[in-house]
Amino acid sequence: MEEVDKILIHALKQVGTEVSEETDSVKQFTSELIVEAVVRCIRVIEPGLGGALPTSLPPGMSARFRVGMSLAQACQDVGYKGELGYQTFLYSNEPEIRSLLMFLVEKLPRESAETSDQPTGKSVVLQRNVAAAIRAQLAVPWLPPNCRLPLQTDTQSLGSMHSFQVQPLSLPYSTTAAGQKPQKEVEEYRRVVLRPVTAQLPNRWSTMASILEQHTAELSAAQEWDVEWNSQGLLSRLTPQEYRSRKLTRLRKRIEEQLRSAALPSADSSSSFSDLSDLLHSFRSSAPDDLLMKGTHFTHTQKFTFTQEVAALASPAPSGRQSEGDAALCQQDELDALQQQLQQLCSHVEQLAADMKLMAVTNAQVKDELKQRVLGNAEEEERIHVKKKTIDLLPDGDDNLLQLQALMEASSRRLVNLAAQWEKHRAPLIEEHRRLKEIRSSQDLESSRKLSEIKCLHDKIRVCTEESRKKEETYKQLVSELESLPQDASRSAYTQRILEIVSNIRKQKEEITKILTDTKDLQKEINSLTGKLDRTFAVTDELVFKDAKKDESVRKSYKYLAALHENCNQLIQTIEDTGTILREIRDLEEQIETENSNKTMANLERILEDYKAIRQENSALAAKVREG
To answer: N or C: which end of the chain has fewer CB within 10 A?
Structure first.
């Protein structure tokens, strides 16, 4: 049985059942593990039938009984012919569970049996579970909205289907570099102006897609930075901040070079020089008269060349050393003049920027004053219009007063009518307000309860995360141990073990057949000896009886013969009764062992506990009914 149990446990692990490494026999299976194993097998065999079955037992006893009945019915629908009920799953019996699991494992499709020899990983198991869930949902028939259960409502409703649209998000942590403290204005903006992520999007169903897109972009940027830092940054022997600043400086220099190359005039283009002259003239028009009087480097070069040509025509050519010295002095003077001009331009640009800021502030103030004056003018126009109408009505004052009184009476009647109508509408609105208030209070209670449940779920998630981390470490350790083990175990080894088991079973059958044959031979010999004894006694009885009529001593021997025969029959009957009693004793011992293996006392204790739990649930339900 140990080999059979190991094969069953291996097959159950392949279909997704979480069987611990310490479990090596069906006898150690708990009710929860049995339910999970049966449901996993049924989902692989019939996805549509096993999709609605839970993989774990609920806490309530009545719900446990319903789940047990559902599992029994599902196993019978799959084709199991043995006796099955809720007690098979709740109060496990080793032989019944073993036979049920053997049937389900034999019913598994061939594909799963073939893939069981292949290596499994997290991605493979995940894809297999996703495919099983999709097949289970596809196998569920479509139902009208009025006939849908909660499961069909979640899977067949079109209300939760939307086309995902990615929107840009503004996140606080993404605008500040790591280790850099944000400015005061930035903190104020985040605290007062920046809205939450859910309020930045026009549609709530695009929240998840936008967050995933933002996270993907940041993750890719971080990965690119890691790759660049590992490939180039480490070779530079700089800190990450220094490397970033040097990269930023290079980028700025490259941009400046591009701008300078784009701003410099070409040699074969005369229009660029005219545009540059117009630009300089525009600067010259807004600058003081003493600025930009010496022209640009280009104009200086032209003037210097023209001056040299004129000097060359007017005077004899000087020596080479003297011309080179004069050119160097001229270039130095020109460079000093250009630097002074650049400083004056920078100061002028800064002054213009300050003036622009001042003008922008003044413009905003003027716009505010203009808006206030426009509003004041509108109010004055309205007041003048009312006064004009009043002045126009002064000549016919009596008639206008009568008309005004009539209008006032009509208005008062209309107000009374409106008040009556309002009273009619006010009562149901007040009732509706009270009802909505009660609903809101109940929703607040429900939200607080759900908040506590969410906190509990967070705690559970944290615990599960720790457990998954520990299991991941255990998995890595087991993988390393598996890699260190010899890899000679293959399908042939399992086949050889199965053949050895089959041969042992065949030998046991041969021994049983031999024992049965010997038993039949012994029974035949006993029957022949019994018949021979009866015949011998009959012949002896007849002979002795004939002589007993004539001789008194023979008559006594006949009596002794009859007594001997009777005692022998009683002895044979006693031996047969002793054999029967011994067989009954062996049967009773086997039944005692079977009952001990069935954990009858433990099942009885569990049944009593479940009975008490059901009584408590019934009393709680009755109390709720009385309160309602």
So the answer is: C
